[in-house]
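Before surveying the methods themselves, let us examine one representative protein, pairing a chain with its fold in token form.
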Amino acid sequence: MLQNSYVEDKKMSISEASNTYQVVMPRLGLTMREGKIIEWYKQDGDQVEKGEPLFSIENEKASLDIESPASGTLKIQVPIDTVVPILSPVAVLFGTGFSGSHHGAAETIDPVIQKSQTQVVPKATAEKTMLPTAVCASPKARNAAKRAGIDLAGLTGTGIRGMIVLSDVNQKIQNQPVVKATPLAKLRAAEIGLDLRGVKGTGLRGMVRREDVNRMSAAEPTEQSDGIAKPLSELRSIISNRLSQSWVERPQVTLVTEADATLFVQARQQLNIELGKKNIKLSFNALFIKVAAQTLAEHPFMNVSLIPEGLYQHPQINVGLAVDTERGLMVPVVREANLKSMEIIQNDLDGLVSRTLQGNNKMEEISGGTFTITNLGAYEIDAFTPIINPPECAILGIGRIHQKPIGLDGQIVLRSMVTLSLSFDHRLVDGAPAAKFLQRIKQYVEQPFLWSLWKE
């Protein structure tokens, strides 16, 4: 935790305090309670411009660069490798011409843990279920451990809530006994993934030679000796950790239904004829985002998250769309989608998806979601089991829209059908309410004339 010795206990004059900007540990997500400063990009007394990278933090999910919220002369209050509660002071910018931030710089800077102003609904049944958890480690620590062949399960983390961080792995590497080996032996061992600590050297003073490595390799062949192990990228590590966390911690249930999307397809065609005059083309994703947002407004019990204080009811409806990129899966967020028209949602989506594919998203564009949609229809997938994007309550999977014969009014006819798969956190929502939510989405897909009743 933040120590008093890390903060300069000094009184500011009134004129000085009115000309400062208090930099605090930002809150980057609903479940974030604290962050660890791992690097300062500026030194004490440096001039900082608004918007340039100021410091880097590490939380349970990723390492992130934090931009300077204002321009001024920097005074660092918290050193690196320090865990700081959210909204607690970390630095002051002097000469900004105004006071600001989440709170202006006070006369005495006191590192008090500030209680977040969230709307919490107490719920006894929303207590966390004690389930086995995977090893909690930062992406950088996992990559370093993989390269060094270190089992993370044997390490004790010094990061947030016992998370294993890079320094823990480096310490383990330094404490490992040094193996004497020739350069050729080290190269050969790296090629086949062999731990030199288990090889008996026959060279001078027990040095491991290439022949020793080859002999050990021949004696203990592996099924994957011809394969190449490639370390996970930082983004892929984050995705892996989040999905593992979601699957282990959340009792996930998936409901599946099939909807007649014939009128849904026709409605889109008619809307695009009119919007084509503005060079706007509605995608199916934009329509599903609007449908989901409207349904969430009618069923707010699906727009919740579980936090330590209890069941949190989100005041906004922010719908994310899963986007496949070369770097991995990203989820840009359309904020307050229930209050926007389909036209505005499409405009927002065009910009968000474009920046996501280019890797130019701002932090606020890929965070703060309360519900997610994932569409695999382009890959000819019908039903699937989408994994919840934590800390959200549910995710909607959309399959392909295709014609198939069904019975209608005593006749066999071809209709455009779509499969909808809803995965939800059973700790937060029971089966029947979740089924009603999915049923309402189905009704809006099958009866688009109901859209006229929406209030925007």
User: Anything to note?
Assistant: The first strand starts at residue 20 and ends at 24. Confidence is low (pLDDT under 50) at residues 1-17, 102-133. The chain has ten helices and 20 strands.
